[in-house]
Amino acid sequence: MQSRYISMSLIETLSIFCLFALFFQCSSNKSKKDTEVKIEDFLTDDEIFDDIDKAKKIFYSLPSPLETAMIIKSAGAEYNEQLLNVLGNTEKYTTNKSMALNLGIYTTDLSFASLNDQTQTSVKYMEAARKMAKGLDISDAIDDQTIRRLEDNLDNSDVIMDIISETFLNSSSYLKENDRPAVAAIVLVGGWIEGLFIATQLVGDKQIEGNKLVNRIAEQKLSFKIVQRMLADNQKNEAGEENEDIARLMIEMADLKNVFDKIKVETSEIKVEPSKESSVATLRSQTKITITQEVFNELRNTVNNLRTNFVQ
Amino acid sequence: MKRLLHLLSTIILIASINTSLHAQCKGFAKKICKLELIPYIHDGNYHAAILTEGEEAELYKTFYSGQKYRIAVCGTDVLSVIEFQVIDAYKNVLYDNRKDGNSRIWDFELESSQQLKIAVKVPENDGDSEYPQSGCVAIMFGFKEK
């Protein structure tokens, strides 16, 4: 009788707990939706972000470290190893935020090195990225086998890029599927800032007139809008609690917003032109970029300060 | 008592289906959808979610000139075809896979960099199923230098 009473009250307690859990899951979904509506409040008329609360799921996609490195390289950036984050810095990163930022930073460095055929450096930076991933408890993303595969294919750039892409997919999918999308967002921001840092430093004090890399840097204003929304989207977790790392990162990036506000990127409507020879369509449009030397210098300094803050 | 046990088992069943769908989603994106990108290089980003028939998802991304891109939008077998459109800042539909034999992929290059929206919809199925089906939908990007 006694044991039956205990088992019944245990089942009742469990059921109540499960009902509460279900209730809070519903509430958290509601608060997530509320956040999405708030995002719409600060939309401007020159943006693509409209009807944002209609869809069940919204994704904001920033260039990955691999794409960032490719964007810089295709704009004619020369390789300069001095600009990469120092490998010895790995020991300094002990917080979730610093490890996430530097996982992105080291992955962009790794991508930049490998796209420039710096194979030995690539292996070293993969090791650095691995340490960050291990610290974030996603060591499966980059394991011994990944490093061995990289070492075995040092003369095959296609395989190296495939390995980088796969390790990044492993870490981002793991973080998102394990309710850590905020960490995944911070990794992306770190990688994107590193690309901006390398590109602005490579331009240096040179005149910006006619510099292809400067146009590419100014165009990052388009991705910066995605950064802002991605961070805002991850500011609160499913239970409605504020994520301190994201909140701090948003404050740290406020200066960057002020500089990007001084850069004008205007785009025309797009005409789609199907190809006669291949299946690749061409999107024909014009982009007008307005940036002064003074604003560029300010952008370079702001990015430098931000990146110094991330890697120190 | 029976009611409580029934309630508990339902809750556990829902929770386990949810977890299993998420795991399935990760594997689906990595092992199936990613193959659609070949010969392009996958950018490494992961965008996948469990959607139910009738639901929509949107993705915002900046695409840069100087590169060729491939978009792949795939859904697990339990879902019927996945519809997707590529839309520009002026709300012009640049591509609609319904007019391209429900293709899972679209290849393009840009004269100048642009921010685009990928709108994805799981259409409602007119099949025999009594309840709307749920499955994984993945949106993946590949690129290569021009």
Count every helix of chain B, treating DSSP H or I runs of 4 or more residues as helices.
1
Query: In order across it, which strands form the biggest sheet of chain A?
Result: 2-5
Task: Please write the string of helix (H) and strand (E) elements of chain A.
Answer: HEHHHHHHHHHHEEEEH
What's the shape of chain A? globular
What percentage of amino acids of chain B are in beta strands? 35-45%
Notable characteristics:
heterodimer, A: 312 residues, mainly alpha, two-stranded antiparallel sheet, 12 helices, 6% strand, globular, disordered N terminus, B: 146 residues, alpha+beta, Jelly Rolls, five-stranded antiparallel beta sheet, four-stranded antiparallel beta sheet, 40% strand
Descriptive notes:
- The complex is a heterodimer of chains A (312) and B (146).
- Chain A is 63% helix and 6% strand.
- With 312 residues, chain A is mainly alpha-helical.
- Chain A has one domain (65-311).
- In chain A, the strands form 2 sheets. In chain A, strands 2-5 form a two-stranded antiparallel ribbon.
- In chain A, strand 3 (271-273) and strand 4 form a beta hairpin.
- The longest helix of chain A is centred in the first third of the chain and has 40 residues, at 2-41.
- Chain A is globular.
- The termini of chain A are far apart.
- Residues 1-8 and 16-45 of chain A have low confidence and may be disordered.
- Chain B has 146 residues and is of the alpha+beta class.
- Chain B has one domain: Jelly Rolls (Sandwich), CATH 2.60.120.380.
- Chain B contains 1 helix and 9 strands; from the N terminus they run H-E-E-E-E-E-E-E-E-E.
- Chain B has one helix at 2-31; strands spanning 41-42, 48-52, 56-63, 67-75, 83-87, 93-96, 105-110, 114-121, 134-145.
- In chain B, strands 1, 2, 4, 7 and 9 form a 5-stranded antiparallel β-sheet that branches. Chain B has a 4-stranded antiparallel β-sheet with strand order 3-8-5-6, with no helix packed on it.
- In chain B, a hairpin with a 5-residue loop joins strand 5 (83-87) and strand 6.
- Chain B is globular.
- Chain B starts with a helix and ends with a strand.
- The relative contact order of chain B is 0.28.
- The mean pLDDT of chain B is 88.
